[in-house]
Design a protein that fits this description.
The longest helix has 50 residues, at 144-193. This protein has 3 domains: 12-174, Globin-like (Orthogonal Bundle); 198-328, Alpha-Beta Plaits (2-Layer Sandwich), CATH 3.30.70; 332-418, Orthogonal Bundle (Arc Repressor Mutant, subunit A), CATH 1.10.10. The protein has 20 helices and 5 strands. It is mostly helical. Strands 2-3-1-4-5 form a 5-stranded mixed sheet, with helices on both faces.
């Protein structure tokens, strides 16, 4: 039995005429043009102002945040909506062509409005406006053909408007992100250099940093594959713990300023370390606010330069834990700190100093130290405990013993230097 002849009507109908170039069910250009005469398009233009006003009222009723906009911002939204209605008429003339008229509707959005309204809120506004148009624009039709063509055109135009809005806001987000990154770099650089003043605090406030929040500086090496994006990922981690963070990559060093203290047991600190490359990470002391964070930065950077002297240093290491390495590296701050916390408190008791040095010289052997000093071993233990109470350093601990040794040595060198008369010229 021969195959049946195909319906001749199918030969003259292309799939794109039925479903559109991208698969959407839209009327073919010729159909739209024929079904929507110039008189109807003029009516749409004529009612554009009223339609925009009523659409704004609909937004006020359905979107709770819309009432928070000031009068100028609401007027800007109304201008966008009215422009979109007018451009709808122009778009109908060539629905398969360039959507430049649609994009123009959102290119008139003022920059401050784009920053005030999020992309999600914009999508909701587009949805409400297009639902309003879908309901009322078809009432301008004079017959079923016009009604069908106008309804389908509104649906497709709404889709184009949505994509146009997304493009505009994506561009604004990129610009804002680039500006914020530059601002963030300026703030961190100012903290590292020690620049203070209202400009630093105002810039930090623009980046959502609370001016009275405590600040801690942490430094290390950035991941080689994330030199640019590491700041963003670090921000996201901080937000998970309701913290603020500022960061910048300076050469081979990632400098981050974190809101609040960083304790060894904090889960936040563990997650924060994932943004640094393998290798040493040093944490400075916590300061009362961002204006005084330069002290934390100085300590952290000095610790990072000196941490190489302690091969088995913990990760992260606190700048306080690296005092002897920093002092040996010529860090005046570390030398002064060791003098204030160890040398000076022990300077009033030569007996304690001699006991510590004898104990260290004996390799930590209490009995040997006692014989060297001609005292009972329990007396040695008593004196070492007193030293620990005064300095916070236990001579029986290898690390504390090293700290005490460096501190006492530097103290002797300092006193000898002060007591040596200057040579005559």
């Amino acid at each position: 039995m021969p195959d049946a002849e195909p319906d001749p009507r199918l030969k003259t109908t292309r799939a794109t005429d039925v479903f559109g170039a991208r698969g959407a069910h839209v009327p073919a250009p010729a159909t739209v043009h024929d079904a929507l005469p110039d008189t109807l398009l003029r009516r749409v233009k004529q009612y554009s102002g009223r339609l925009a006003t009523e659409a704004i009222h609909s937004m006020s009723e359905q979107l709770p945040y819309f009432s928070d906009l000031d009068a100028a911002q609401r007027a800007s939204v109304q201008l966008v909506v009215q422009t979109a209605v007018v451009n709808f008429v122009e778009w109908i003339q060539d629905p398969e062509g360039n959507v430049k008229f649609t994009v123009q509707a959102f290119q008139v959005v003022p920059q401050d409005l784009a920053r005030r309204i999020s992309l999600l809120q914009t999508v909701e506004m587009v949805r409400v406006a297009m639902e309003f148009f879908e309901k009322w624009l078809p009432l301008l039709a004079r017959n079923d053909a016009q009604l069908r063509a106008l309804t389908e055109s509104v649906l497709r135009y709404g889709r184009e408007i949505g994509f146009a809005a997304a493009a505009i806001y994506a561009s604004a987000a990129e610009s804002r992100g680039a500006w914020d990154s530059r601002m963030e770099a300026l703030v961190v650089d100012a903290v590292v250099r020690g620049d203070e003043g209202p400009q630093l605090l105002s810039r930090a406030a623009a980046l959502n940093w609370s001016t009275d929040a405590a600040a801690t500086v942490i430094v290390g090496s950035p991941p080689p594959e994330q030199n640019v994006s590491v700041a963003l990922t670090l921000h996201n981690t901080a937000k998970q713990y309701d913290r603020a963070a500022l960061s910048v990559v300076q050469g081979s060093t990632l400098v981050a300023i974190v809101e609040g203290p960083l304790r060894p047991s904090d889960r936040f600190l563990t997650d924060l370390l994932e943004h640094f490359a393998e290798g040493p990470v040093v944490i400075g002391p916590t300061t009362p606010n961002l204006g005084s964070a330069h002290a934390s930065a100085v300590e952290a950077m000095a610790g990072l330069r000196a941490v190489v002297g302690w091969p088995n240093a913990p990760r992260p290491a606190y700048s306080w834990d690296l005092l002897p390495e920093r002092a040996l590296n010529g860090d005046r701050s570390a030398i002064e700190t060791m003098d204030e916390t160890i040398v000076e408190p022990l300077s009033g008791s030569e007996t304690l100093v001699n006991t510590v040095e004898a104990y260290l010289d004996s390799g930590g052997q209490v009995e040997t130290c006692a014989r060297e000093l001609y005292i009972h071993p329990n007396t040695v233990r008593y004196r070492l405990k007193k030293v620990a109470d005064i300095t916070g350093r236990d001579a029986s601990n290898p690390r504390d013993a090293f700290v005490l040794r460096v501190a006492l040595t530097i103290g002797r060198l300092a006193r000898n230097h002060q007591g040596t008369p200057h040579s005559a010229p």
